[in-house]
């Protein structure tokens, strides 16, 4: 059921190179990709959930081939067309006429305030169903209940597993709907602890745990 | 009913394939259509290239080590506590601090994308965004940490935090022995970025 981005637990990726450090920007176009993505995001035409959905909806071969900022740029172009901010023709027109700056466009003097505000996902919402310490089980399979093949934040490796509620983090925007412009539908969000041995069959050390932040509709009570 | 298959001639395929040219083309289109203020784009880039980085998180950790009142506030509501120090906002709207102890070591990953506490650590390094780190850290954290040169005592349990929502985790490493006389400013120099992700420990600064 999972998409290419949902890679937790996967075998075959080889060693990590901690010296692989591209900060702050290895290429000039990386910095431009970040600046354009954030400035365009400030137009308010889509949420971070929709951005993630656009990146992970790239065909698997493209997702694997493209670098981090290349995925950002591909998703940005796709979202601009999806949301009607640009047309396919605009993307191939060499010399577009200069239009006046949109009133919605982020101005330089507003950047510091916009970045320090961010986009909080905490909302008013229903009271939590589960108490700290409660046993729960995650949905199986991990899937979006509104959109077949749609965005969800339940990783495949944790689907169908029993865990323990560690904390309720308040009600947060539900990515499964928000990513598809189907509303925010805030739900209680919990940090849930899973026993590593139960997740993987064998743990490097008994007692190790994996902690995930999961929305209430991903969870059922576990007797 | 909405659906989510991806068109094989997706709009991005209309842009030049070379990434530098592709970004340049988008920048031109967005500017011409009045959707971005180029000065705002520059201001965003400058913020992340220059102003925001692991020194922010290091100041939080050093204060947690030296100021019991702040540590208490950090445990109760880390977002509010760091806001007092001027930190917060994009990709750090909801922060939770997780403390290492002699028996528990914390390490942070995002298996689904590359979520990371930007206001405290800056933008993430390449290895944090790599497939290998995202795939393996949840399943074999000890092997992953060994590749960073970090070998934990046998009695230490590991908690891997997979950043699946908008909560951003900051690891508070244990204060190193022998640092009792140091000020918060001096201690902050011991706090590496990797120590706040959980792939490292504090390191004595080179003189």
Summed up:
The complex is a heterodimer of chains A (223) and B (207). Chain A has two domains: 28-117, Nitrile hydratase, beta subunit (Cyclin A, domain 1, Orthogonal Bundle); 122-221, Roll (SH3 type barrels), CATH 2.30.30. Chain A has eight helices and six strands; from the N terminus they run ααααααβββαβαββ.
Q: How would you portray this structure in words?
A:
The complex is a heterodimer of chains A (223) and B (207). Chain A is of the alpha+beta class and 223 residues long. Chain A has 2 domains: 28-117, Orthogonal Bundle (Cyclin A, domain 1), CATH 1.10.472; 122-221, SH3 type barrels. Chain A has 8 helices and 6 strands; from the N terminus they run H-H-H-H-H-H-E-E-E-H-E-H-E-E. Chain A has helices spanning 28-41, 48-56, 60-65, 68-82, 88-92, 111-117, 175-178, 196-200, and strands at 122-123, 135-138, 162-172, 187-195, 209-215, 219-221. In chain A, strands 1, 2, 3, 4, 5 and 6 form a 6-stranded antiparallel beta sheet that branches. In chain A, helix 1 packs parallel to helix 4. Chain A is globular and about 65 Å long. In chain A, 42% of the residues are buried. The mean pLDDT of chain A is 96. Chain B has 207 residues and is α/β, with parallel strands linked by helices. Chain B folds into 2 domains: 20-50, no CATH class; 54-197, Nitrile hydratase alpha /Thiocyanate hydrolase gamma (Nitrile Hydratase, Chain A, Alpha-Beta Complex). Chain B contains 11 helices and 4 strands; from the N terminus they run H-H-H-H-H-E-E-H-H-H-H-E-E-H-H. Chain B has helices spanning 19-32, 38-51, 54-66, 68-76, 78-84, 118-121, 126-129, 131-136, 141-147, 184-188, 193-197, and strands spanning 94-99, 104-109, 157-162, 167-172. Chain B has a two-stranded parallel ribbon. Chain B has a two-stranded parallel ribbon with strand order 2-3. In chain B, helix 3 packs across helix 4 (68-76) and helix 4 (68-76) packs across helix 5. Chain B is globular, with a radius of gyration of 20 Å. The chains are: A alpha+beta (223), B alpha/beta (207). The interface between A and B is large, with 119 and 93 residues. Strand 5 (209-215) of chain A pairs parallel with strand 3 of chain B. Chain A: Keywords: Lyase. Chain A: This is nitrile hydratase. Chain A: Residues 126-221 form the Nitrile hydratase beta subunit domain. Chain A: GO terms for molecular function: nitrile hydratase activity; transition metal ion binding. Chain A: It is an enzyme of class 4 (lyase). Chain B: Belongs to the nitrile hydratase subunit alpha family.
């Amino acid at each position: 059921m999972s998409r290419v981005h949902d890679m937790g637990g996967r075998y075959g990726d080889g060693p990590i190179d901690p010296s692989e450090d591209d900060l702050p920007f290895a290429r000039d176009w990386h910095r431009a990709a970040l600046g354009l993505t954030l400035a365009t995001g400030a137009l308010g035409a889509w949420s971070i959930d929709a951005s993630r959905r656009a990146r992970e909806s790239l065909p698997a071969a493209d997702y694997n081939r493209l670098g981090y900022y290349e995925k950002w740029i591909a998703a940005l172009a796709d979202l601009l067309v999806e949301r009607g901010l640009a047309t396919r023709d605009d993307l191939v027109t060499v010399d577009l006429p200069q239009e006046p700056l949109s009133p919605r466009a982020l101005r330089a003097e507003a950047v510091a305030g916009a970045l320090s505000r961010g986009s909080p996902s905490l909302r008013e919402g229903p009271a939590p169903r589960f108490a700290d310490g409660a046993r729960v089980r995650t949905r199986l399979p991990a899937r979006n209940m509104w959109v077949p093949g749609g965005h969800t934040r339940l990783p495949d490796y944790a689907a169908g597993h029993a865990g323990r509620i560690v904390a309720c983090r308040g009600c947060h925007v539900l990515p499964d709907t928000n990513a598809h412009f189907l509303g925010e539908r805030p739900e209680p969000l919990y940090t849930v602890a899973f026993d590593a041995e139960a997740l993987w069959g064998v743990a490097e050390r008994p007692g190790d745990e994996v902690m995930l932040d999961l929305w209430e509709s991903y969870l059922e009570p576990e007797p | 009913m909405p659906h989510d298959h991806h068109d094989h001639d997706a709009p991005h395929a209309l842009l030049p394939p070379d990434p530098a040219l592709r970004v340049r083309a988008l920048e031109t289109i967005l500017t011409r259509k009045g959707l971005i203020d180029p000065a705002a784009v520059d201001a965003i880039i400058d913020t992340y290239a220059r102003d925001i980085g692991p020194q922010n998180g290091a100041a939080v950790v050093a204060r947690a080590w030296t100021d019991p009142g702040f540590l208490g506030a950090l445990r109760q509501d880390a977002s509010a506590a760091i806001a007092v120090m001027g930190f917060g906002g994009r990709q750090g709207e909801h922060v939770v601090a997780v403390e290492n102890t002699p028996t528990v070591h914390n390490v942070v990953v995002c298996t689904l994308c590359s979520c990371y506490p930007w206001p405290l650590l800056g933008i993430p390094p390449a290895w944090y965004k790599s497939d290998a780190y995202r795939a393996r850290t949840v399943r074999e954290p000890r092997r992953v940490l060994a590749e960073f040169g970090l070998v934990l005592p046998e009695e230490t349990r590991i908690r891997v935090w997979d950043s699946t929502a908008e909560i951003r985790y900051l690891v508070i490493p244990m204060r190193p022995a022998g640092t009792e006389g140091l000020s918060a400013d001096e201690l902050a120099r011991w706090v590496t970025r990797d120590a706040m992700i959980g792939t490292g420990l504090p390191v004595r600064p080179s003189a």
